[in-house]
Write the structure tokens for this entry.
Amino acid sequence: MTEADWLACGDPIAMLDALRGRAGERKLRLFAIACCRGIWHLLADERSRAAVAVTEQYADGLVGRESLVAARDEAREAKQRFPRPAQVRAWRAAGAVQDATRDNARSAAINSAVEVCRATNARDTNVCDADDLRRWEALLRCIVGNPFRPAAADPAWLTPSVVVLSKAIYDERAFDRLAELANALQDTGCNDTAFLAHCREPGEHARGCWVVDTILGKA
């Protein structure tokens, strides 16, 4: 996949394939989590929601593998609550969370993306609609950015106000404050169009957003 292909691609599965060797475990895991948070309303069992939170902590190194395994067990039990085909959307949504807890982050990312697409498909839950796929490719770009042009922050941009604001956005998932971050970056003299445009880009953003991660020094 070329850079032009990456920027135009509407299929997150193809994009994930192109990320071999270009994205770390944390980024891939956070994408799986973003997929699950994107169908929060379909997670009808609190054990699924709790498993998402633990898996997110695992991605950031705040808990160990034993916690991930425990979350996987809880997610599996939550999935078994919903019989197929009577509650197939809830079953698939719970399955997306179970997939996010896989040991291999790449496998977690791919399988969670597929399952959330199937869960949100109103016509046929075994098919991924193009519109559903585009939602997740936008989140994947938010997290990974452009792998063909690795981002770097000028140290002059990393003022206390920019760093504190970025940390608040990350910790609180306050993505509605990204436009505020763009203004703060401009105040430091930043004129990088990629950074500023992403902060002002409409639509969904997710924890792991490449701009916030770059400012905070997260891989």
Remarks:
- The two ends are 22 Å apart (CA to CA).
